[in-house]
Amino acid sequence: MGLNFGQAARAAAIAWKQTTSVLPDAAKEPADLVRLDGRTMHGPFDFCLPPAETVANLLPEAASAIDRFAALGLAWPGGVGGGPNNQLLDTWVQCANALVPLTGDPERLALFLSQALRVGEVLPIENDWFVTFGWSGQADHLRDHGGATPPRGPAAGATAHAAVRFRSPEGSIEVALLSWFYAESFRDAVAEPPRKLAARVAQLQGVAAPNGPFLRAGVDLGPFLVEPFERLVHLHLLARGMEAAGELDAERVRVVMVAPSENLDLAQSITSAAQRHLGSTVPDVWRAALDPTEADRFVELDSACLVDPALDLTSAEFRARYADLQPKSTDLAPDLASGIGPGADEPDRSPSWDRRRRWG
Predict the structure, then answer these.
(1) How far apart, in whole angstroms, are the C-alpha atoms of residue 62 and residue 325?
(2) What are the average pLDDT values for consecutive 10-residue runs of the chain, which has 360 residues?
(3) Quick one: CA torsion of 103, 109, 113, 117, rounded to 10 degrees?
(4) I need a surface site. Which of 167, 212, 342, 345 has the fewest CB within 10 A?
(5) Residue 10 — φ and ψ, nearest 5°?
(6) CA–CA distance from 319 to each of 12, 59, 94, 95, 316 (Å)?
(7) Whole-prediction pTM value?
(8) Residue 275 contacts residue 195 (beta carbons within 8 Å)
(9) Cβ neighbours of 221 (radius 10 Å)
(10) What are phi and psi of 40, to 5 degrees?
(11) Beta partners for residue 122, in sequence order
């Protein structure tokens, strides 16, 4: 039996760690794993960095992520010593390694987003950056914080790993909320106890009510308050709240699920009959669950585009480190008009659009 994506990603990370020249020798030692909740899993493990070397988890071109996250008040989930988490497969680290170098590069950001959205030009969003991180909105849209401005990052309940503001080819201002996935699998995810789940359903239905239903008639919210759907629910409601409030002057706010098409364990994280009734993969199930008037608010973007040398979105070192993103039998050569992604009346031609059918 072959390796699943998580196992293959771990093997690729270990191989990179042993051969790269960007890690100091001290960082190449195995280490215990620090979990996202701060607990330690004793190893040592070759895919982890020693606690004193966690900053090296960021590629050289993304080293400014330490200062940028600090400026935003965004704590690294599972961070060690003020730096990021120490395992090489950390999702926040991959997001930072990919996007921090693009904070001042709107053209590359436009090309990245154009793998899933129609983008005319990328606009500054915060601190004169063209992408920001741990975005939770400028108001308590999900009513989790007593009306106060929510914190950055996972503590907010609803947070996007990254957010990008852009103008569409038609001239409207939009915001993309990026929910980033890497080697995760949620096939064993379990919902909250019934009483707690019922309370959360009632709260979120109250949040949704002023803007109308967001799920298709006959679809219950409860079965979707389990990962990975729960974060999509939260971001969808955040997007609607931002739009209603006119945050960032956005006329449309969309949720972008950034994930590798090779990670079939993630794609097939379907854990209930209610979910299976709607489809066989996470993106297809979630799209089918949404009200038809809301379905265009969700798109998926194959992170394999980040290692496509023809697109030139990332460094050679990024492509070497995350070589596991590369589809095993797909030509990555792009054929995109500058600044334009797939349109409503166009056939889906972009490489990521074709690859995502592996999930369906």
Answers:
(1) 19
(2) 86 97 97 89 94 96 97 93 93 98 98 98 97 97 93 89 98 98 95 93 95 95 97 97 97 98 96 96 97 95 97 97 82 34 35 38
(3) 110
(4) 345
(5) -65, -45
(6) 11, 11, 11, 13, 5
(7) 0.91
(8) no
(9) 18
(10) -110, 135
(11) 166
